[in-house]
């Protein structure tokens, strides 16, 4: 008997017929002798409807009241799933965020989960828990921010020391790269938390990043599965997200995946004085404005004693970044600011990289062979990322997917 | 400075524009220096939508989970009204049933309100409270049954010792009779709890009967007002529902109103043996089946030593009543059961009646003058009711409305 948390997103909960399917899937696990807690999202579209009500009532809505309004979506699906489970003979009970309670910080609309009490965990009864919501210390409803239900599921799994947290989504697992770009992309059987964080944050939108971070911290084994498969022996296995110790040596030989992210913008400051401390005058004001700088390249110095500095910021923060820098133009001393949003970050991800120094070299050579110019480079322990012109995105992903032996035929 | 509870129904809360109107109306009272608590219903149509979800999930839904689902409707409007109030500079905070808490019995879907804690009552802040919901002793959401928000409002008013409980509805007060039947019906300035109970339970559907009973028990002064009037000096005054001691002698001279109720069915048992105890054999099994019998007429005995017994039951219980009686046919000894749903109960209501013996006589004469046949009669301290054929409903109401001097011209 295992203890399992099952999490179903808005698409799986959209309407009574789908909720009944979810109930049958849960019954399948209960019948197998497992103890199950379920975390659910609101019906798809419902949270948007409720958020729009709040915005319409006042663009400057009080986040404490916003939380009261939007948390109702998951409350409804929790009650309905409990009814649907009872209807097929599975004892079930809904437990709202304030009932468990799921303690959170008081940062309304983007609260962080703290302690979760577990007195509600009962043998032989499925607990149905609304995702995305909790209770602040002053007894008010909080929500975790959009997509927070994944995080709720992982937090509940950690609290009850679950053997597994199964996240049912509208994809059936994590792939070596975006299958829309590379039809021969393979579904991964296992991926480490660190790899998943890189894959999720650079484009493979399967799980909320925060939930993966929490799973890593708490050591929760997370499985990503398709909610559209019928449960049973023919069910397609999903992808397990686990700690590095669960990855064996053979798996470690491989690069895990290729990610791409079109959500970065490149900024270049022309002719920054080439003297100690110059770089600090650029990045300190950006940090003060909470603008996240990713890749940084300092170009070769000009003869004139100045240098060009290039870096990337998230697309959504570009306007603000330009504003901050222009106001510091005299302090920094650059002559011109140019920016470019037609860029893509391509990342090669894999825990094996730590012992494979040639990974980066192969990446640069593969891209150079196709005439793809590299605008910036950044590396971490488990990834190498390059910035290229966005026109080459698909070509670069395909070339690298093949170069690292990730294509389905190669993997047989 | 008065302490006021304001209650707004589903029509008043249907959409953000209307919620903004409600907020302005509340601001009007706050600006006048009053301390205000507000009780709200769900947006009209929302509770039906949620109830249908539960039915669709399982016709035999668990009422505990039904309560979790349907209570969300009022949760949403509470949060939105708090936002709308804040947007026009009125400090406001929503307080859900479990937060106050509003303690209730554990009869899910039809709970009774017990104690309401009042620590949430704060000077200078409007408390927005969802109607219809509360908290059971075992920490689960309960609801009061349809229309329960009126009862919530009265209970909150009693708890905080409010000077007044203003119920905003889509009618602008309580009338001497149904204005659709008698255009010259007058709006009453005052009506006693007892009269309101009779008027409500026999057809003037303005307030939920249970809320009037609670107001009477707790001595809460209730005002019924139109939610569509603009607040201000030109606002039409509503109807105050008060204790008898607030009704002066002049008002006491009058009959208060004429009510009609098409929701009764007449049952006649033919040739019941005319012996002691025979009537008990009829009504005991009906009482055992919780079928409410209203008017009873025992006809003149036949020569054969038998008698016909006629009575009324609520239309909705007729089929069950017939079933119960047919199963007891031998014990009771009747030869035939006939029933008739084409009947209406007409009631003349007024606290003045206790000192006016002629009221009943005038009623019988007025109806006889128009050739309206009386099928059954019942009286209470403050009303006289007769059963007539439904074809005469409007005629009877108009004749009596005139006979008792209730027409608008007479009242000038």
Distance N terminus to C terminus of chain A? 33 Å
Radius of gyration of chain A: 24 Å
Greatest chain-chain contact:
A-B, 38 and 38 residues
CATH architecture of the domain at 3-250 in chain A: 3-Layer(aba) Sandwich
- What's the oligomerization state? homodimer
Helix content of chain A: 25-40%
Give the count of helical stretches of chain A: 13
Provide the low-confidence segments of chain A as ranges: none
Mean pLDDT over the full residue set of chain A: 90
Number of separate strands of chain A: 20
Globally, the shape of chain A reads globular
- In CATH terms, the superfamily of the domain at 3-250 in chain A is Acetylglutamate kinase-like
Description:
- Chains A, B: GO terms for molecular function: aspartate kinase activity.
- 2 copies of one chain form a homodimer.
- Chain A has a domain at 3-250: Acetylglutamate kinase-like (Carbamate kinase, 3-Layer(aba) Sandwich), CATH 3.40.1160.
- Helix content of chain A is 33%, strand content 25%.
- Chain A has 13 helices and 20 strands.
- The first copy, chain A, has 412 residues and is an alpha/beta fold.
- Chain A starts with a strand and ends in a 9-residue tail after the last helix.
- The model of chain A has no long low-confidence stretch (mean pLDDT 90).
- Chain A binds chain B through residues 16, 19-20, 50, 53-54, 56-58, 60-62, 64-69, 71-72, 75-76, 78-80, 82-84, 86-87, 93-94, 96, 98-99, 139-141, and chain B through 16, 19-20, 50, 53-54, 56-58, 60-62, 64-69, 71-72, 75-76, 78-80, 82-84, 86-87, 93-94, 96, 98-99, 139-141.
